[in-house]
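Notes for week 9. Today we move from apo structures to complexes. The key idea is that a small molecule is not decoration. When we ask for a structure prediction with pyridoxal-5'-phosphate present, the ligand SMILES becomes part of the input, just like the chain. The input block below holds both the sequence and the ligand string. Read it once before you look at the output, and try to guess where the molecule might sit.
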Amino acid sequence: MSDQHGQQQYAFETLAIHAGQEADPQTGAVVPPIYQVSTYKQDGVGGLRGGYEYSRSANPTRTALEENLAALEGGRRGLAFASGLAAEDCLLRTVLKPGDHILIPNDAYGGTFRLFSKVLQRWGVEWSVADMHNPESVRAGVRATTRVVWVETPSNPLLGIADIAVLAQIARDAGALLVVDNTFASPYLQQPLALGADVVVHSTTKYMGGHSDVVGGALVTADAGLGEELAYHQNAMGGVAGPFDSWLVLRGIKTLGVRMDRHSENATRVAEMLTRHPSVVQVLYPGLPEHAGHEVAAKQMKAFGGMVSFRVAGGEQAAVEVCNRAQLFTLGESLGGVESLIEHPGRMTHASAAGSALEVPADLVRLSVGIESVDDLLADLGQALG
Ligand SMILES: *Cc1c(COP(=O)(O)O)cnc(C)c1O
């Protein structure tokens, strides 16, 4: 990783704790304060201190987070938003215009799909679906008007794996940007910009925040010019992360590496247990050798992450019952926090994709495996599966 100023570079774990965060010059506070402020005193008209004039344009706590995000993804510019979808909306309205086409995955996050199909489509942006795990499908799907190829890897909720380097080449050949939603992996496990992607998207609500106590989003770009355009639109559209939310995400990121290691270890144990369970038809986890994307995941990820999905024998009703019986696994949407969650994507997170090409199997259960004792987690799943 090299820094935008070409300075001495630290390893990921060090950057996670220090990038963008000098001790406060006035007090020596080792953690950036929450600058809960909207406006800034000017030293004469236009005499800004440190470039701050109004907190939609910039706020010091948000700046700390944005510099940290850029460092962790190895990018030139990081931007923090009020939610993952606010980040996606800003990106798409910055780079697309009516008549442009976007190629989307057949297993995108439900809210992302809703943004394409229910919002942007009304503004004349065309979209079509490709199987991002199959490069031929992507090559066949790009058009002369394609401006963006969008990929999630691992994907939500089916844990599909796409080869980022291969897709980056296809997008480049087509004159399109490759956008990678890196929410499931986090930059600790996967660095899309280094593999050729143009923009990384995050729901920082998930692993980056890591404690289920904040909603946020981020964009990181490799290209400084695109970063500048995005920053302009971030201010023009206004969906920025507030100071306290920025502070919570910064705080969460400090432990990202140790959390992801434990999430990955626990998820591996859970996936192995599920593959042996008679009530489970199929386990979707890229760490399993039989997973279709295992080799690509092993090549581009440091470990396989904390998300595991599985299909339950007995269909939809049986899957819903497993979710209802779980106790330590909390029944709820979202993911990426220290506590384990369980949900039924078909009726919960992905209900908005029903009837579309992105509909998920009705017998699917999704786990966000937390960092509790793995023995307690295995015992709870055992009783939930009956
Ligand atoms: C949650 C999520 C989003 C949307 O982020 P919000 O913070 O909920 O707006 C986008 N992509 C993925 C993969 C997600 O899990």
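The first strand starts at residue 77 and ends at 81.
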